[in-house]
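Lab notebook, entry 284. We have the chain sequence and a SMILES string for zinc ion, and the next step in the workflow is to get a structural model of the bound complex before anyone spends time on docking refinements. Request logged below.

Task: model protein plus zinc ion, output structure tokens.
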Amino acid sequence: MNRKDFLRTSSFLILGGAAALKVSAKDTPSLHHSTAPLAKESKEGQYPMYDLHVHTSQSQSIEDIVRKSREMGLSFGVMQNVAPWGIKTNEDLQAYLDEMSKYPVYIGLQPMSLGWSKNLSPELIAKADYVAMDPQVVPKANGYGEQIEVYTYASYIDSAETFMQANMDYYMKILSKEEPIDIFACPLLLPNAIEREYHTLWTKERQEMIIEACRKNVIAIEINDLMHVPHKEFILKAKKAGVKFTFGSDTRNQQTGRLIYCHTIAKECGLEMKDFFIPKRKLG
Ligand SMILES: [Zn+2]
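Result returned:
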């Protein structure tokens, strides 16, 4: 999700890991012809058994993800960042698609800033199963004109209102769908300095603006397992508006597959299969 994590997770692209992946894939041919479950329903029939937001990393290879998928009866969507440090060109994107398509996983793109699609071919982008973008790198988000990276401890917030205005502007630009987006990832997360004011700062009006943009432009909302966002009230409002959801953990290690927050809040909100975005492609 962030640069640090990306550098850890994307050795596949940066360090020429594609070749390594090919070799290891050869060693484990059974992984390629798996009958991994495809977004099947939970036992209760309430929600899909999937996690559309996982990353590979030094502590979790694509083979580990596929193995976990089989063992746990979960389908996974593997995300790769589109960013100056990740996928930058059509060649990068093609290499990623080629490698990931050997495995029974969904293929997701996770751009990190607006303007990400201008150097990429629309046809290639469309070959991914979905694009998910989070609003976590907010431009000019404090009185000093600084960019705020919502996930970092060191985000400097001088005024919660200044931040929220810039934050909402950024949300609305992403959700305008000028560039492809299927899933709005990790919504409503706030910087540490103001996260205690979450329920005050996420006013009814702000929540409704976000939900309306998602409804109008057919963008699903990720329920993020790691950050416990969004909250119940927001999910219920979005559900009422007919917006779809996904489960996403944004994990890259032993945490992958837990989904405790996702499953708990989905039950609490009475979400059903019809409330979820399911990628079109059949896996396996
Ligand atoms: Zn991520």
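Notes for the group: The chain has one domain: 3-27+38-275. Worth checking against the assay data. Residues 160-175 form the longest helix (16 residues).
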